[in-house]
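Subject: design request, 237 residues
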């Protein structure tokens, strides 16, 4: 889990024929850069809540945040992101409902995938909720021609404010039905619930990020060992 001040990225402002207003989507690069190291889109989505579920730091605090995640992760294209941001400004109540639905869906996906990581059965209510979301998302898929053949894409309906999680929903369904599901891990760091794919040869990766949670865990163990040695020295002094 990455903590601290939001990071700045590099890039230039996107040209747009739409009238601009001062919102998150009008500034690119974004103020907050999401970590996309989960290894699957669905894991990057559930990791939009930093910290643990007991001590959370919410990163999806507005619909603009959701759009920003979608654009950064590739779940939606830059033109769709700009059009969704404009649509949300025109329909703020609908955008608020779409954000609430996305956050609730994220937690459903987290509980299912965390259960798999912990080798526990997933809650049937959560599975049913994901199936409902899947049935609503899949009709919007389509085949897209590419230079190398075809790939799955999505209809470009910029009025559908609930479209941003669609690709993450499909990603979760694909992962849940894949042999790679056994590689899903929950970070062993204190106060971190991030999920990630353990693609190490021995399948022994423990932390979402060695530079963050991994280093903090090592520093904590060093401090505890050092304190124990000092205690022994005092006891025998």
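Subject: RE: design request

Done. Sequence follows.
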């Amino acid at each position: 889990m990455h903590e601290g001040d939001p990071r700045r990225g590099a890039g230039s402002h996107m040209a747009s024929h739409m009238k601009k207003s001062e919102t998150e989507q009008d500034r690119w690069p974004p103020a907050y850069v999401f970590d996309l190291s989960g290894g699957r889109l669905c894991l990057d989505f559930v990791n939009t809540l930093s910290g643990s579920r007991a001590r959370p730091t919410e990163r999806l605090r507005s619909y603009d945040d959701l759009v920003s995640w979608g654009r950064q992760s590739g779940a939606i294209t830059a033109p769709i992101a700009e059009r969704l941001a404009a649509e949300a400004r025109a329909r703020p109540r609908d955008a608020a409902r779409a954000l609430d639905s996305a956050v609730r869906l994220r937690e459903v996906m987290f509980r299912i995938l965390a259960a798999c990581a912990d080798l526990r059965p997933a809650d049937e209510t959560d599975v049913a909720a994901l199936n409902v979301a899947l049935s609503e998302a899949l009709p919007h898929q389509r085949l897209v021609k590419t230079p190398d053949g075809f790939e799955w894409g999505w209809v470009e309906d910029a009025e559908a404010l609930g479209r941003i999680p669609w690709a993450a929903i499909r990603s979760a369904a694909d992962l849940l039905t894949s042999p790679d599901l056994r590689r899903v891990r929950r970070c062993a760091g204190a106060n971190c619930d991030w999920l990630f794919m353990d693609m190490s040869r021995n399948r022994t990766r423990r932390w979402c990020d060695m530079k963050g949670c991994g280093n903090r865990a090592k520093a904590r163990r060093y401090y505890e060992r050092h304190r124990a040695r000092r205690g022994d020295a005092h006891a025998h002094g």
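The CA atoms of residues 67 and 81 lie 6 Å apart.
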